[in-house]
Design the sequence.
């Protein structure tokens, strides 16, 4: 992998953006699809940054079900929330496909943060965003209706020329929403039949946002 590609991944990172010089403090790790990754590597605590591929973040329910919380892509990091503690990550990380990571020892990252106020502020912003994300995930998981979970997900997603791109498979999306694959397909078909959305090869297009919001807030 070229140095240029590594630096591009660092530049895409909300945490390390503008800190290309830190690449020299990182190590490259190649993982296979389905491989479990951890913030502990050969007895050392590390922070991982996705260079290529994807890492799916799962929570394990009391009944043993895996619920996908998010998907990490190029520039995203794991091992952030327990940077200042000795606790293990409360989630399971699994490569969605063949993935390349950059890793940095957490001790080294803490040293860098002591001398780089901008890096420290970016870390604080990311923690703030993760707290907001978890609050929204709790809202998802406490909803009883699969339809409402799906609608809220669609309303929250960014659109590109009116199209909401799906960055994961529908099976993974069902896991993320905490519903069965069959329920997801049923609700998508229902919303399309009511002419509220269109399913297209590149994603989902919202046809009537106002009506979707009405359904959501009636819940």
Sequence:
């Amino acid at each position: 992998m070229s140095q240029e590609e590594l630096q591009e991944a660092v530049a895409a990172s909300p945490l390390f953006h503008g800190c290309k010089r830190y690449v020299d403090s990182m190590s490259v790790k190649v993982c296979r699809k389905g491989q479990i990754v951890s913030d502990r590597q050969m007895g050392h605590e590390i922070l991982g940054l996705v260079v290529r591929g994807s890492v799916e973040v799962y929570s394990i329910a009391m009944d043993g079900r895996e619920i996908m919380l998010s998907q990490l892509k190029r520039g995203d990091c794991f091992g952030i929330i327990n940077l200042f503690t000795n606790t293990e990550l409360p989630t399971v990380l699994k490569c969605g496909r063949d993935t390349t990571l950059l890793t940095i020892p957490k001790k080294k990252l803490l040293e860098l943060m002591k001398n780089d106020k901008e890096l420290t502020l970016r870390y604080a912003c990311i923690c703030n965003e993760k707290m907001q994300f978890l609050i929204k995930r709790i809202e998802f998981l406490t909803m009883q209706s699969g339809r409402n979970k799906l609608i809220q997900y669609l309303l929250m997603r960014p659109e590109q020329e009116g199209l909401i791109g799906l960055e994961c498979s529908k099976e993974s999306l069902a896991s993320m929403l905490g519903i069965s694959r069959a329920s997801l397909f049923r609700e998508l078909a229902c919303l399309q039949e009511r002419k509220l959305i269109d399913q297209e090869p590149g994603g989902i297009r919202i046809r009537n946002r106002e009506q979707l919001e009405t359904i959501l807030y009636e819940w």
